[in-house]
């Protein structure tokens, strides 16, 4: 018994302290060094944070360059698929154009009505947000985090918590800001919680990411019923997100209400970070 | 001349596992898939475990530490999280190497479970304790399971690589 314990001790000691012919450091030294670095990083000291920010910027750039072959493969694959299904897609697009024409007429009517109502309430509504457009440089998934990295940071006025849109729809918020790069936490991440409103009933809910493509809608009212088309917008209740940013369409999936995002989180190339809110404070 | 060329070729192929490890950490190469959600695996664990166990001269501990640091930056984890996780996987591999006389696929494969459990537990513990993030237990479980299941495939590939590219038959 004691011999086997001795053997274990010797083997572990040897594994920890022994260095091979080409090993410059022992495992023990590197484990201690990792613990030291970990302690420094979680201490959130200002100089350490600045150093980390510089390190992030550098590694993100290298990562973006080294990922270019993978991106090229993706582009080639998409191009091949597009060519392969071009006839089918053409048919689908024709139907979509027809639907959009019908919707356009409806939108024109609503726009006119909206203008009229604004005149009635004397609101000077400026609906456009002030944004900074940037490019996604790294899109790496992990079991722990669904996020992407963009090529703009604090030098462009980006701050923590700012909402990020793609083609006019919300995709996430800023969770890390470096000098020339930032990280966006996507809506489908497990840690993403956004207060939303569901049209046409105006039901309030929380959009919760679960790691899947379609985040679910939590805390809907008990009497909530699905309409023909349920659109999801930010409610702005948290005071962080501006109200009225379109998010997606609520659908029923496996007896759960989930949101089909207008912007596919796997297909993001360019994004706009909302750095300022519209001037219609009264409207909000 | 032929000997010099052979030396250059051998040295180049010896760098293969290290380059692959660093590339996986730094690039967008996904081992986590959206469309088939439960299928994901930790290729870094496999590379580290195999090469530390079978041929430690190919993959130095210092480089493993560096790969961990890069992975932490790319995934926005506290610096040192992946380093610790990878170094503990290396520790298990080094222990198995010291404790066993003759290893085979099956001994490597089954001891790999211990390495996965320790590596993932450390990751999980540090994330829960020091980072305010939610983790989905099932995702981590499936990740560990598929990392374990897929190991023999990479073991065979690496054995083949070691034999034909690096020219090493014996451990």
Description:
The complex is a heterodimer of chains A (about 280) and B (about 170). Chain A is of the alpha+beta class. Chain A is built from five helices and twelve strands. Chain A has a six-stranded antiparallel beta barrel. Chain A has a six-stranded antiparallel sheet with strand order 8-7-6-9-10-11, with no helix packed on it. The longest helix of chain A is centred in the middle third of the chain and has 36 residues, at about 85-120. The N and C termini of chain A lie far apart (about 75 Å). Residues about 125 and about 280-284 of chain A have low confidence and may be disordered. Chain B has about 170 residues and is an all-alpha fold. Chain B has one domain. Chain B contains seven helices and no strands. Chain B has helices at about 1-15, 15-25, 45-55, 60-75, 80-100, 105-130, 135-165. The radius of gyration of chain B is 17 Å and the shape is globular. The chains are: A alpha+beta (about 280), B mainly alpha (about 170). At the A-B interface, α1, α2 and α3 of A face α4, α5, α6 and α7 of B.
């Amino acid at each position: 018994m004691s011999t086997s314990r001795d053997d274990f001790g010797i083997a572990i000691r040897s594994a920890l302290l022994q260095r091979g012919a080409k090993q410059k450091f022992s495992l023990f030294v590197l484990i201690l060094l990792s613990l030291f670095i970990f302690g420094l990083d979680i201490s959130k000291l200002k100089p350490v944070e600045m150093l980390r920010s510089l390190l992030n910027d550098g590694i993100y750039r290298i990562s973006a360059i080294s990922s270019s072959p993978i991106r090229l493969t993706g582009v080639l694959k998409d191009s091949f698929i597009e060519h392969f299904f071009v006839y089918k897609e053409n048919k689908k697009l024709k139907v979509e154009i027809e639907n959009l024409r019908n919707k356009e007429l409806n939108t024109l009517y609503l726009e006119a009505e909206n203008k009229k109502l604004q005149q009635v309430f004397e609101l000077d509504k400026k609906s456009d947000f002030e944004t900074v457009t940037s490019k996604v440089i790294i899109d790496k998934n992990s079991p722990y985090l669904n996020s992407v990295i963009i090529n703009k940071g604090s030098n462009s006025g980006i701050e923590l918590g700012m909402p990020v849109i793609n083609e006019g729809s919300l995709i996430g918020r800023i969770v890390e800001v470096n000098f020339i790069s930032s990280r966006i936490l996507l809506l489908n991440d497990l840690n993403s919680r956004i207060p939303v409103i569901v049209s046409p009933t105006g039901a309030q809910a929380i959009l919760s990411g679960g790691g899947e493509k379609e985040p679910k809608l939590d805390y809907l009212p008990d009497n909530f019923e699905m309409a023909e088309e349920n659109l999801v917008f930010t409610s702005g209740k948290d005071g962080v997100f501006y109200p009225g940013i379109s998010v997606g369409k609520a659908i029923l999936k496996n007896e759960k209400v989930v949101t089909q995002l207008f912007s596919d989180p796997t297909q993001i190339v360019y994004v706009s970070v909302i750095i300022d809110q519209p001037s219609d404070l009264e409207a909000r | 001349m032929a000997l010099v060329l052979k030396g250059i070729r051998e040295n180049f192929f010896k760098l293969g596992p290290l380059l692959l490890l660093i590339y996986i950490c730094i690039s967008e190469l996904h081992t986590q898939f959206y469309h088939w959600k439960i299928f994901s695996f930790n290729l870094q664990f496999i590379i580290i475990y195999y090469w530390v166990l079978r041929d430690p001269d190919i993959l130095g501990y210092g480089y493993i530490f560096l790969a961990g640091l890069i992975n932490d930056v790319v995934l926005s984890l506290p610096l040192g999280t992946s380093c610790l996780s990878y170094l503990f996987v290396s520790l298990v591999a080094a222990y198995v190497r010291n404790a066993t006389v003759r290893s085979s696929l099956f001994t490597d494969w089954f001891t790999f479970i211990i390495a996965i459990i320790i590596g993932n537990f450390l990751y999980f513990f540090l994330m829960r304790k020091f980072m305010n993030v939610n983790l989905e237990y099932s995702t981590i479980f499936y990740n560990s399971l598929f990392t374990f299941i897929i190991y023999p495939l990479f073991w065979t590939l690496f054995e083949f690589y070691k034999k034909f590219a690096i020219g090493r038959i014996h451990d």
